[in-house]
Design brief:
8-stranded mixed beta sheet; binds glycine
Length: 333
């Protein structure tokens, strides 16, 4: 190698080293913890906690918690009982990520009731990160997942009623406000776990927006939008109208804000402000929620509109449900 090339190479390496934050040793964990979005996060956390409390790792914990949300409840926004798209198809999105950067996801997956476990198989058994639609279904079946009808009679009835108007207008925290005929249609479960070894993982799973266009994919299976985890910093996940998270690479943004020194709470708040800044008018009519945990186990959350709750579980508190601060008070709550 010529001395000029050697000089250029070492200069570039030095420049790269200056741009990239040096990898730090992971902090000794204060103890295991799991957090997740919405009130169904409480029982989902319990499933995850069973694993963490027994010394299990964060990845197994978030998969177990997300699996509970997919089939252990019947909820119109996650898994088996999810509401269909406007053509009547239930299509599921999910992602899973380890703090070392390994990740897997599925989008627009039909007939398989544990998309989070298919996402984990994508991570562990393929050279890819994201499989979609029929290809994701074929992969799941090849991996032993049994196809089944996901559309429940209740979801079918709601879809038929919706077709009378075919109006696509997601309501903020609708089910929580008891709005008849307009159930919550954006309550994704996002879960973040910190293992006793200081390693983190996250999972995010949803049936997406009710009555969405067939083929629509939200933020939940997109690494960096609905979920992002980095052992060096922490993790973030999102719930709400996924298009806003996609526009802002939102979960990645929250983690990067924590990397710059912001607390989880401030990072979520700053990311919400970014959403408002980008689309101030739209922000008044849709919900966006962020939940973050850093690698010391500090937790924060923020939402566009009041009504977002999140569940926290560790050795001291098993069933804690907290209200996130918000930019707007939702008038109809
Ligand atoms: N946050 C879920 C979705 O928009 O699909």
């Amino acid at each position: 190698m010529s001395s000029r090339r050697r000089f250029l190479q070492s200069s570039l390496m030095a420049a790269g080293a200056a741009l990239l934050p040096a990898a730090r040793a992971l902090p000794a964990s204060n103890g295991a913890k799991v957090v997740s979005t919405w009130d169904f996060g409480v029982p989902a956390n319990r499933e995850a906690w069973r694993i963490l409390a027994a010394g299990g790792n964060a990845l197994d914990a978030v998969e177990a918690g997300a699996r509970w949300a997919e089939t252990g409840q019947c909820n119109s926004t996650v898994g088996r009982c999810g509401y269909p798209d406007r053509d009547g198809f239930v299509t599921l999105d999910a992602s899973i990520m380890k703090g070392d950067g390994s990740c897997g996801a599925v989008a627009a997956l039909q007939d398989i009731d544990h998309p989070i476990s298919v996402a984990r198989k994508v991570m562990e058994k393929t050279p890819h990160v994201l499989l979609v639609g029929d290809g994701a279904r074929q992969f799941a079946v090849a991996e032993g997942f049994e196809p089944r009808e996901l559309r429940t009679p209740e979801a079918e009835k709601a879809w038929r009623e919706w077709r009378e108007t075919s109006r696509y207008a997601p309501e903020i925290n609708a089910e929580r406000r008891g709005v008849p005929g307009n159930k919550d249609n954006h309550d994704t479960i996002g879960m973040l776990a910190l293992g006793a070894d200081g390693r983190m993982a996250g999972a995010c799973t949803t049936s997406g927006m009710a009555w969405k266009m067939h083929g629509r994919v939200g933020d939940s299976p997109i690494i960096g939008a609905g979920l992002y985890v980095d052992d060096q910093v922490g993790g973030a996940t999102a719930s709400g109208v996924g298009e806003e998270m996609l526009r802002n690479a939102a979960s990645f943004l929250v983690v990067e804000l924590m990397r710059q020194g912001h607390s989880p709470s401030d990072a979520c708040h700053l990311a919400i402000e970014r959403v408002v800044m980008k689309r101030p008018q739209a922000s008044k009519t849709l919900q966006v929620c962020f939940l973050a945990m850093n690698n010391h186990g500090e937790v924060g959350a923020f939402a566009l509109h009041q009504g977002f709750v999140y569940a926290v579980c560790d050795a001291q508190q098993q069933d804690t449900l907290l209200q996130a601060p918000a930019v707007y008070a939702t008038s109809k709550t």
